[in-house]
Design brief:
Length: 40
């Protein structure tokens, strides 16, 4: 099993799975865990 960083786990739990989108979010947040509302 591959261990995923908590930031990616949180994004996936909110339905964010596109790798390009994840990379942009992590870049903008300094790779910190963030709360994402995909309905907006």
């Amino acid at each position: 099993m591959v261990e995923r960083p908590i930031s990616r786990q949180l994004l996936a739990a909110k339905g964010v799975t596109d790798e390009r989108v994840i990379e942009v979010i992590l870049h903008l947040t300094g790779r910190l865990p963030v709360l994402v509302d995909p309905s907006r």
